């Protein structure tokens, strides 16, 4: 069909009962502290948290032409309200830089009331100037520690990492196992319609 692979995603799963929790005893990196919550982000860090979410756009996505929203406090609150309305809990962790008080990184995990035994790790991002301090590992470890302590009915967590081998390696260090790889393919619609499907030439 003329489609070309542009990026790959590693699909991973962690079964909590089969994982040694001692691997989650990761100390906070020097100069940072972890803040956790369920649902809505604390008002005092909301603006900084919205800025930190924009760091997701720095991820290497190969030739996949997709962009995250331009996160603002208003958009974060709308996303949180939508999740709550659908019966979904957001378990979030933010890494706070002690000197500046800004959010240096974030990660969130969704648990739906329809599948309370399953956690879906959604976004993890570290602001560029705070990279290289182990924040990704520390945030995910803090999240798993809290889930194990407060969510005994949670059986497994799944996640998907795109073209970021270091982030997939962090998940493996915490006990995640690779399930397989997804490949995103793209093709120009005009080319697909005219050359591959035998249809009329594109206007």
Relevant terms:
alpha+beta; Aminopeptidase; 5 helices; globular
What is the topology?
Blueprint: E1 4-15, E2 32-38, H1 46-53, H2 73-85, E3 88-97, E4 103-112, E5 118-126, H3 135-150, E6 156-162, H4 165-173, E7 177-186, H5 189-196
Parallel strand pairs: 5-6
Antiparallel strand pairs: 1-6, 1-7, 2-3, 3-4, 4-5
What do these coordinates show?
It is a single chain. About 25% of the residues lie in helices and about 30% in strands. It has five helices and seven strands; from the N terminus they run ββααβββαβαβα. A hairpin with a 5-residue loop joins β3 and β4. The model has no long low-confidence stretch (mean pLDDT about 90).
Give me the strand/helix succession.
EEHHEEEHEHEH
Helix content: 25-40%
Q: What is the overall number of helices?
A: 5
Shape: globular
CATH superfamily: Gcn5-related N-acetyltransferase (GNAT)
CATH architecture descriptor name:
3-Layer(aba) Sandwich
Classification by helices and strands: alpha+beta
Q: Over all CA atoms, what is the radius of gyration?
A: 19 Å
Distance between the termini: 20 Å
Quote the beta fraction: 25-35%
What average pLDDT do the residues reach? 88
Major beta sheet, strand line-up: 2-3-4-5-6-1-7
* Largest sheet entry: 7 strands, mixed
The tally of beta strands, per DSSP, is: 7
